[in-house]
């Protein structure tokens, strides 16, 4: 009895017979929203607030450069690669795991997809290789964690080291320039659909797919169950190990897609790609309200977290602030965002 | 000399949380050297009250006097300095530290203010443990390696390591075996003899009769009675005060043998054994039948249940459903064959506490509501709701988070899960643990009704009357062996206790 | 369950063929192999007494560092009497100290050290010198001159200075010219030196103003990201100096994506891709300021000379100089052919 419960729960058996409808269910604020499938999460509201403040700051300090279509395209484009990675990581964290290898997987997939041999196969070869390498690395993570019973932190840390090593071995430290024109073209303004860069479209598609999978499928439900209480999930008949395997595969897949996007964006593959993505992605997910211990989190929150980070960087760059100031302010904003979120959350908890 | 004032007086204490008035003007008076029992259903406000007493919650209103002086319990440290110690139900020990380190955590004997005098701490801890009747606990051992009962002793030693004048014990006997409970009572007697007051919280009325001096009953955040004599107040009155109505500790009628005798067994257990836990067990379970396993903690009763369920891998024997053997050690095979388990540790093993009732109920049947992995949430909610309504789960709100439910309703959510899954064999491990006295009868009725509708039920309980009252057939276990099998009507509590204890070193 | 097994077979086949495809895709061998230009050794190349040279560098995770290794190895191969003991590159200070100590214990004749962190490896350089092993300190300088016999390295300040003067000359007739700087990793001293040299050079041109500066981190990805921000912030400018050609690949990509070409760009370090672009003259990149990886070859020459107690041909000194600062030449379309062979990828 940790939570004092309303007395409505203590009606005895004589009240409301076996199947008859009992007293009207206590109505709950937000019930109508839920029915529409629009779960408006207060945590996300507070992040939207942070984003609004940032936009106000940006618009006030650099009205010309900040508030135009080009900058909106820029912010969204710069969010898209790390955004796709973050969607995958969010699933893993909700399930109670962690994936430290995302940056290394992006690096490995992007360099494998841009070797001269792969480039011979053109667009399809690059896309296929990036996705398959991501999946394969995710599979190794998943097998080690789900069936090898390794702690996710250690297994993915090992993957981080070895994938970076393999990426270095493939490139020999060199920058691999992409010469496949169809890939390069996707990063150029001519390919924009109604003013939206293709990378942003991919990011949007991954976000929507992630949201649907988390909220509308058995897979998403099982992910939350495994993260919320793995033992209960196992005893409820869920194949927890297979679920874990799939989750790391999913994270690998997202990294493969992100690697392809990064190849398009930078027109090259380099073993230093995806530097510190693991920290950026985890930070974005946490700011977005995902519980590091698992069981709770939203895709929308994570995506907002990514957008907040990118917008901060953008505003700093437009104001010509240097790295030192940027880093200090970024740390302060992370703390502020989490504090604001905590307050909002406490205010709404019943 | 004027009569000594009460050690502690709390009057008109109120405390609200967003949306809930947890304490609505509670009065409590505790005398030095008495065992004061605090009774109340889940949600009555007991936890909040003891947190106020421990300084962990600040009351919104009311007054507290300590030895006649008004005090503010503004923090746990303040309470501790006054001599108020609390032993919570979920023990707050650090498993990775030794017994001595736990006992003196936060007030270690030190040299120069920071060097811990380890030997002194160990001697001190050993003295306290000896005073508690457990000199055999080694102060140097890691707390994580101790049994639950010993951990509780360490928790008490920690309380006594302060100059304590009032100890609050929150359901101290919940995790203990009968002989350990006896030891606990000896300790309580010893403390009160030294003038220490004990506030004792328990669901078990018989314990309150044995050691209590006075009783305060809480209901819906109010004290409905203050300081009643614990030994002489009739049970019926106490239950009535707790629940606001008269209930008997009633079990539902057993139907006649009828169908059951002729039906084919749905579950067959053949020579099932796990080395070191229990010896080969044979068991048949027919639709409509409730079979009980009676035994002490450690007799292998829960282990048998979990092995049947596939959560533990047997070292010998097999489990058959409808004559077909199940893959050994596979929960998924058991669930697929129609077996469901309501485990002992409901919160840790069954529930997704922060999730809604619907999601908790549907979690084992998700694929039923999905096409190609895509959930039809409308159907899911309706089906889950039908199941919870059939069990009269309160509140009737599919979106309520399971953690806000009372113990009995949480158990119903677990049962609804298996009802929805369409399971045919239900394994119940301590189904009424943590369930209010008033809500138990209702749960018994639900279990019996499920059996009447054709479910086969295998029941484990440490409360012998529960097994005898609910089951049709009873298997008595001692030290991993079935020592007796009989119709429940042919047994009584004394007989079962004799069987359970017979030859065991403690009797 | 035929369904499952067929599915399994399908997946199996797919997995195997994907695996086969992927293993074939790790190759980076170009179709027609370019023959590496061999430049003549600067020192006396008559075989002398045998010399064992120990070489310890950081992990070659970057084009320029990779070129350093290649230069050192290929130069050592040219001398029949030189044996090169090369360690696994490491960015970890402790690991590199261990590697140098191993080389000392092996009693190599001369050491060439490119420290991951110059200050942190000073102690082990002193140790080697005390053990009687002359140390050639390559590029990142030790804290004490006692820790090396000879230092050879690039001139970061000079890089900035030369880039600034080149841009200044190009824009000298333009009123109110705007210049943008894309720097390297900001917490490296060399970045500060490059920026300082650049700023000092620009002071000579009163018509030019440095309007924006952002720091990337030597990677293509960061180059693209930071350049995109700079382009958004500055709607029009006249010249850009980018500290590093590797991140320049990303910067050029961002410029292409923004569709901008109103300015000239000057690179840094001297990567092959940058030199190719300068030669082709089809982008904003018009020049790059060298930070030549050939210094590793020179270090091997110096080490050999030290090991054989010789001077340098062409100098009248009896002894090898204690320090040798290389000139950061500006490579443009006019002189590109001379430098193209030293471009690294």
From TrEMBL, chain A:
InterPro entries xrefs: ABC_transp_permease (IPR001851)
Organism listed in the record: Streptomyces mutomycini
Region span, Disordered: 1-30
Key words, A-Z: Cell membrane, Membrane, Transmembrane, Transmembrane helix
Protein's UniProt keywords contain Membrane: yes
One Pfam family per UniProt: BPD_transp_2
UniProt key word Transmembrane helix: yes
Annotated membrane topology: Multi-pass membrane protein
Protein name per its UniProtKB record: ABC transporter permease
Subcellular location field: Cell membrane
Main location (coarse class): membrane
UniProtKB/TrEMBL annotation, chain B:
MF annotations from Gene Ontology: ATP binding
Pfam families xrefs: ABC_tran (PF00005)
Name of this chain's protein: Sugar ABC transporter ATP-binding protein
Annotated ranges, domain ABC transporter: 8-245, 261-504
Entry-linked InterPro entries: AAA+_ATPase, ABC_carbohydrate_import_ATPase, ABC_transporter-like_ATP-bd, ABC_transporter-like_CS, P-loop_NTPase
Keywords: ATP-binding, Nucleotide-binding, Repeat, Transport
TrEMBL record, chain C:
Domain spans labelled Periplasmic binding protein: 53-308
InterPro entries according to UniProt: Peripla_BP_I (IPR028082), SBP_2_dom (IPR025997), TAT_signal (IPR006311)
Record keyword Cytoplasm present: no
Keyword field: Signal
The keyword Signal is annotated on this UniProt entry: yes
Coiled-coil stretches: none
Compartments where located: Cell envelope
Alphabetical list of Pfam families matching this protein: Peripla_BP_4
Family the UniProt entry places it in: Belongs to the bacterial solute-binding protein 2 family.
Name listed for the protein in its UniProt record: Substrate-binding domain-containing protein
């Amino acid at each position: 009895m940790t939570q004092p419960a309303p007395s409505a729960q203590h009606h005895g058996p004589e009240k409301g017979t076996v199947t008859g409808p009992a007293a009207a269910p206590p109505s709950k604020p937000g019930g109508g929203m839920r029915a529409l499938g629009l779960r408006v999460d207060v945590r996300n509201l507070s992040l939207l607030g942070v984003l609004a403040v940032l936009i106000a700051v940006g618009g006030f300090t650099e009205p010309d450069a900040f508030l135009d279509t080009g900058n909106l395209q820029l912010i969204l484009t710069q969010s898209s690669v790390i955004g796709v990675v973050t969607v995958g990581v969010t699933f893993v964290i909700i399930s109670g795991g962690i994936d430290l290898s995302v940056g290394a997987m992006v690096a490995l997939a992007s360099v494998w997809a841009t070797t001269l041999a792969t480039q011979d196969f053109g667009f399809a070869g690059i896309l296929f290789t990036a996705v398959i390498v991501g999946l394969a690395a995710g599979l190794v993570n998943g097998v080690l964690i789900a069936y090898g019973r390794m702690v996710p932190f250690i297994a993915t840390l090992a993957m981080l080291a070895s994938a970076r090593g393999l990426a270095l071995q493939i490139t020999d430290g060199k920058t691999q320039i992409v010469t496949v024109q169809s890939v390069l073209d996707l990063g150029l303004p001519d390919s924009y659909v109604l003013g939206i860069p293709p990378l942003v479209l991919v990011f949007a598609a991954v976000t929507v797919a992630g949201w649907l999978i988390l909220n509308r499928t058995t897979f998403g439900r099982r992910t939350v169950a495994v993260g919320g209480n793995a033992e209960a999930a196992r005893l409820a008949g869920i194949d927890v190990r297979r679920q874990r395997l799939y989750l790391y595969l999913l994270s690998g897949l997202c990294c493969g897609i992100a690697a392809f996007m990064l190849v398009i964006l930078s027109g090259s593959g380099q073993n230093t790609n995806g530097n510190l993505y693991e920290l950026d992605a985890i930070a974005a997910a946490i700011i977005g309200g995902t519980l590091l211990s698992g069981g709770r989190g939203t895709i929308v929150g994570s995506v907002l977290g990514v957008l907040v980070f990118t917008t901060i960087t953008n505003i700093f760059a437009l104001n010509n602030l240097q790295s030192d100031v940027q880093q200090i302010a970024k740390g302060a904003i992370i703390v502020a965002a989490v504090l604001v979120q905590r307050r909002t959350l406490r205010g709404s908890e019943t | 000399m004027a009569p000594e004032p009460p050690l502690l007086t709390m009057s008109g204490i109120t405390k609200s949380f967003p949306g809930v008035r947890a304490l609505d003007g509670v009065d409590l008076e505790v005398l030095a050297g008495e065992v004061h029992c605090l009774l109340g259903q889940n949600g009555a406000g007991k936890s909040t009250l003891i947190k106020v007493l421990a300084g962990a919650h600040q009351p919104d209103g009311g007054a507290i006097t300590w030895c006649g002086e008004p005090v503010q319990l503004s923090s746990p440290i303040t309470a501790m300095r006054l001599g108020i110690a609390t032993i919570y139900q979920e023990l707050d020990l650090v498993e990775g530290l030794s017994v001595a380190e736990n006992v003196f955590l936060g007030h270690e004997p030190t040299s120069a203010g920071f060097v811990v005098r380890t030997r002194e701490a160990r001697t001190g801890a050993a003295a306290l443990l000896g005073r508690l009747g457990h000199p055999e606990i080694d102060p140097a051992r890691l707390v994580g390696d101790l049994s639950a009962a010993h951990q509780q002793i360490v928790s008490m030693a920690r309380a006594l390591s302060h100059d304590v004048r009032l100890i609050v014990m929150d359901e101290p006997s919940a995790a203990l075996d009968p002989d350990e409970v006896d030891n606990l009572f000896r300790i309580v007697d010893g403390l009160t003899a030294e003038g220490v007051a004990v506030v004792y919280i328990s669901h078990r009325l018989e314990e309150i009769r044995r050691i209590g001096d006075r009783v305060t009953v809480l209901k819906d955040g109010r004290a409905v009675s203050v300081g009643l004599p614990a030994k002489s107040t009739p049970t019926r009155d106490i239950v009535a005060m707790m629940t606001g109505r008269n209930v008997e500790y009633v079990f539902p009628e057993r139907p006649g043998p009828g169908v059951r005798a002729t039906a084919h067994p749905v579950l067959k257990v053949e020579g099932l054994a796990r080395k070191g836990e229990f010896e080969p067990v044979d068991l048949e379970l027919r639709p409509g039948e409730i079979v009980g396993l009676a035994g002490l903690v450690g007799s292998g009763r829960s282990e048998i249940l979990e092995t049947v369920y596939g959560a533990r891998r047997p070292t010998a024997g097999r489990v058959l459903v409808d004559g077909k053997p199940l893959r050994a050690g596979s929960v998924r095979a058991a669930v697929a064959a129609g077996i469901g388990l309501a485990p002992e540790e409901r919160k840790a093993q069954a529930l997704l506490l922060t999730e809604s009732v619907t999601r908790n109920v549907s979690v084992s049947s998700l694929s039923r509501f999905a096409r190609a992995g895509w959930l039809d949430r409308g159907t899911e909610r309706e089906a889950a709701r039908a199941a919870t309504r059939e069990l009269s789960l309160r509140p009737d709100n599919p979106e309520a988070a399971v953690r806000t439910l009372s113990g009995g309703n949480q158990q119903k959510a677990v049962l609804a899960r298996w009802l929805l899954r369409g399971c045919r064999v239900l394994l119940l491990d301590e189904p009424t643990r943590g369930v209010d006295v008033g809500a138990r009868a209702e749960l018994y009725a639900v279990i019996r009704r499920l059996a009447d509708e054709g479910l086969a039920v295998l029941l484990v309980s440490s409360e012998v009357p529960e097994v005898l009252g609910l089951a049709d057939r009873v298997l008595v276990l001692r030290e991993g062996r079935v020592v007796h099998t009989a119709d429940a009507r042919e047994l009584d509590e004394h007989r079962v206790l004799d069987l359970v204890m017979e030859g065991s070193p403690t009797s | 369950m035929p369904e499952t097994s067929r599915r399994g077979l399908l997946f199996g086949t797919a997995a195997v063929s994907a695996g086969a495809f992927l293993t074939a895709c790790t190759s980076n061998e170009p179709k027609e192999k370019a023959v590496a230009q061999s430049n003549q050794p600067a020192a006396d190349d008559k075989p002398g007494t045998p010399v064992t040279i120990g070489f310890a560098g950081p992990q070659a995770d970057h084009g320029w560092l990779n070129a350093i290794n290649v230069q050192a190895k290929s130069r050592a191969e040219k001398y029949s009497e030189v044996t090169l003991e090369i360690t696994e590159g490491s960015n970890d200070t402790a690991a590199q100290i261990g590697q140098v100590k191993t080389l000392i214990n092996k009693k190599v004749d001369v050491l060439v050290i490119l420290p991951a962190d110059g200050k942190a490896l000073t102690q082990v350089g002193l140790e080697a010198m005390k053990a009687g092993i002359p140390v050639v300190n390559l590029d990142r300088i030790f804290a004490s001159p006692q820790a090396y016999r000879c230092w050879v390295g690039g001139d970061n300040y000079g890089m900035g200075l030369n880039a600034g003067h080149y841009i200044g000359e190009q824009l000298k007739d333009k009123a109110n010219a705007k210049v943008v700087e894309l720097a390297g990793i900001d917490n490296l001293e060399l970045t500060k030196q490059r920026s300082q040299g650049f700023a000092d050079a620009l002071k000579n041109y009163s018509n030019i103003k440095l309007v924006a500066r952002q720091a990337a981190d030597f990677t293509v990805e960061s180059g693209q990201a930071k350049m995109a921000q700079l382009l958004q912030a500055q709607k029009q400018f006249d010249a850009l100096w980018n500290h590093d050609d590797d991140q320049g690949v990303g910067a050029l990509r961002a410029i292409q994506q923004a569709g901008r070409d109103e300015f000239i760009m000057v690179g840094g370090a001297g990567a092959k891709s940058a030199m190719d672009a300068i030669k082709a003259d089809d982008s904003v990149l018009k020049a790059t300021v060298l930070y030549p990886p050939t210094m590793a070859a020179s270090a091997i020459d110096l080490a050999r000379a030290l090991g054989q107690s010789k001077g340098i041909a062409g100098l009248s000194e009896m002894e090898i100089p204690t320090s040798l600062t290389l000139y950061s030449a500006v490579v443009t379309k006019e002189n590109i052919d001379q430098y193209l062979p030293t471009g690294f990828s």
